[in-house]
Amino acid sequence: MTDYNFAYLDEATKRMLRRAILKAVAIPGYQVPFSSREMPMPYGWGTGGVQVTAACLVPEDTLKVIDQGADDTTNAVSIRNFFARVARVTTTEATAEASVIQTRHRIPERPLTDGQILVFQVPIPEPLRFLEPRETETRTMHALEDYGLMQVRLYEDIARHGEIARAYAYPVRVEGRYIMDPSPIPKFDNPKLDRSPALHLFGAGREGRIYALPPHTRVESLDFEDYPFTASKAAGQRCAICGAEDSYLDEVITDDAGGRMFVCSDTDYCATRVAAQAEDAA
Amino acid sequence: MYVAVKGGERAIENAHAWLDDARRGDRDVPDLGLAQIREQLALAVDRVMAEGSLHDPDLAALALKQARGDVIEAVFLIRAFRTTLPRFGASLPVDTSQMQILRRISATYKDAPGGQVLGPTFDYTHRLLDFDLAQAPDVPPAPEIKAEPADTPHILSHLGAEGLMQGEGPGGPEVPDLTRTPLEFPAERALRLQALARGDEGFLLSLAYSTQRGYGRNHAFVGELRIGHLRVSAHLPELGFEIEFAEILLTECESVNQFQGSKTEPAQFTRGYGLVFGQSERKAISMALVDRALRARELGEDMDGAPAQDEEFVLSHCDNIQSSGFLEHIKLPHYVDFQAELELIRKLRRDAAARQAAE
C-alpha cells in the first residue's frame, strides 16, 4: 500500500460517519450507534474522536489537537501528526486559528466561535453506564426519559458527602431532554457547553457511538434547587506562569518536600497571555 | 521543570527509534525471516489471522515480527490493515465436509465413516523439554501413506439423520457483518459466531471453562473436531460463474449437548459450533461451548446469571483489541481529571473536618 485516502478513511466510511453525525446533530444529546472502524491507534486512545475528525476535515481546514488542554502532550502530538500526514491539513496550536479542534478531557479557555468544530474523545458515552451496565436497559431508559436513577444517585451523594461528589464527566441535560456525558472534562468546563456558538461533536470509537451539541444548544449540568451546580477548580490559586485566575489549573509537584505550583492546563491560553504581557511591557 | 510533565514530539521519535533497535536485538544474531515465522511459528501466525480476521499467513508473520512476538499487538496491526481494505462481496459458504483432512477426531464415536486421524497434535506428547531442538537438528519427514480420497461426512450428521440432533435451519440471504454495522442486542446467532470467531482465545477459553465448572452448565461432548484445507470460492456477477480464489486452513468443532426438550420440541441433542482460521482447536472448542451457552435463552434453559450465557456481557468483552486498548489507555495522562478529583477529596475532607470541629 503506497497511499491512503484523504484523512485516512475511505469515502464510504466517511459517508457513514457523516450520516451518523447529521443524525446526532438533529437529535442533540442522543447517542447514535455507528460502525466504528479499527484505527491505527488503539481503542481508548481517541479512535472515536479521530473518526469524527476524519469525517469532518476538508483540505482547507486548520486542525488543533489537545490532550489535557495541552498541544504538546504525547497523544495530542501523535494524533496531530497523524492528520498532518494522512490529510495534509494545516495544523495550529492557536485556538482562535483552528476550524476543527480535537480534544481529550478539556474545552479551551478561549471562547469558541461560530463555525468552529470541537471534537471530543469519549471513553464511555453512556452517562447511565455506572448505574446500569446493560446497554439494552440504558437505551430504554433514555427512550422513556426515565432518569430517576440518576437523580437518586446524585441525591445519595448529597446525603453522604454534603455535595454531588463528581469532579469530571459531570452529567448534563441537553435541551431539557437527553442526559448526556460531556466526556471526562472537569466540571469546571461544563458551563462552556451551554449555548456555545461552536458545534460540539462527541465520538466514542470502542463503544461505537456519536452524539452532538449543535450551536446554541441549551446544556444544563444536573443539580438540585437547594444544591446548585458549581464549576470548581483549584481553590484560591493562580497560574504560576501567566498569573491567570480564571483558567483551569494543573497542580505540578516541584520537589519532594510538598512543594507545588499551579499552571494553566490550556497551554495556548497561557502562552497567549504571556506573549501579551511581554508586548505590554515592551 | 514545567516541560518535564509534558511529552513531546522528540520523546515520541526517540521512543520509536529505541523500539526499532530493541526489536532487532543483538545484531550478531541473524535477522528473523518472515518465512521462518510463517513455517516455524505457524500456530502463532494462525492465532493472529483468526483474531485479526484476515487470512494471510505472510502478513500475519510480518505483524508478529513487527510486534516482537506480542500476539495481541500483532492482531491489532492486522486489524488496522484489514479495515482499510475494500469489500468486494462475500464468498460462498464453505462446505466443511469437503475438507482435505489433516486431523479429525470424535469423542462420541469410536469410529465413523472417514475414520479418525490424529494429525499433527500435541495431545499425546509428553511435555518434556526437547533439548535436541536447541541444536537445530535435521528432522526426517513424517511417514506418509497414500490416502484414498474419501468422503468425510460430519459425524453429527449421523445423529441428524436419526432426528436426534437439532437442525440449524437455513441461514439468511444476507450475511451480517460485525465490522460494517453497529452491534446491537439481541444479536442473531450468525453475528454472535462472527464475534466469537475473532474474539480473544484466552477470554473464550475461560468462559468455556466456567460453563464446565457449573456457571451455566451444559455438558458438552466434542462430537467432532476437524482441521483441514478448504477451497474458497465466490460468485462473480460480471462473469456469471463461480471462481475459486483461495485455499485456507480451518479448524471446526461441533459440540454435542443434551437438551431435555421443551413444550414445543422433543428431547434431542443440540449443537455448539466453532470455526476458526488455521489450526487452533483450543479456540474452536471454546467457541463451540460458548456458542452453546449463549443459546440458553433461545432454548428456554435456566438462566442463572452465568457470564457465558449473557450475550451482552460476552460480545461486549470478547474483543481483545477493544479491551486491551481501553485497558491500556489509563496510562495516558489523566491529570486534568485527577486534579479535579484531588480538589474534590480535599474539599470533602475540609468539610468533614469543619463538621467534626463544630460537633
Describe the structure.
The complex is a heterodimer of chains A (282) and B (359). Chain A has 7 helices and 12 strands. Chain A is of the alpha/beta class. In chain A, the strands form 3 sheets. Chain A has a 7-stranded mixed sheet with strand order 1-9-8-5-4-2-3. A 3-stranded antiparallel sheet of chain A has the order 7-6-10. The model of chain A has no long low-confidence stretch (mean pLDDT 94). Helices cover 38% and strands 14% of the residues of chain B. Chain B has 359 residues and is an alpha+beta fold. Chain B starts with 8 loop residues before the first helix and ends with a helix. Chain B is built from 12 helices and 4 strands; from the N terminus they run H-H-H-H-H-E-H-H-H-E-E-E-H-H-H-H. Chain B has helices at 9-24, 34-40, 42-52, 57-66, 71-82, 156-161, 189-198, 201-212, 281-293, 311-317, 320-328, 335-358, and strands at 100-105, 220-236, 241-259, 268-277. In chain B, a hairpin with an 8-residue loop joins strand 3 (241-259) and strand 4 (268-277). Among the domains of chain B are: 30-85; 96-120 and 155-166 and 178-324, no CATH class.
Run of helices and strands of chain A:
HEHEHEEEHHEEHEEEEEH
Poorly predicted tracts of residues of chain B? 1-5
* Helicity range of chain B: 25-40%
The portion of residues assigned to helices of chain A is: 25-40%
Overall body shape of chain A: globular
Distance between the first and last residues' Cα of chain B: 44 Å
Average predicted confidence as pLDDT of chain B: 91
**Whole-angstrom Rg of chain B:** 25 Å
Question: Helix and strand string of chain B, N-terminal first?
Answer: HHHHHEHHHEEEHHHH
Average pLDDT of chain A, rounded to a whole number, is 94
Radius of gyration computed on alpha carbons of chain A? 19 Å
**Helical/strand content category of chain A:** alpha/beta
Oligomer: heterodimer
Strand order of the largest sheet of chain B: 1-2-3-4
Query: Terminal Cα separation of chain A, in Å?
Result: 54 Å
Biggest sheet architecture of chain B: 4 strands, antiparallel
Tally of helical segments of chain B: 12
Q: What's the number of extended β-strand segments of chain A?
A: 12
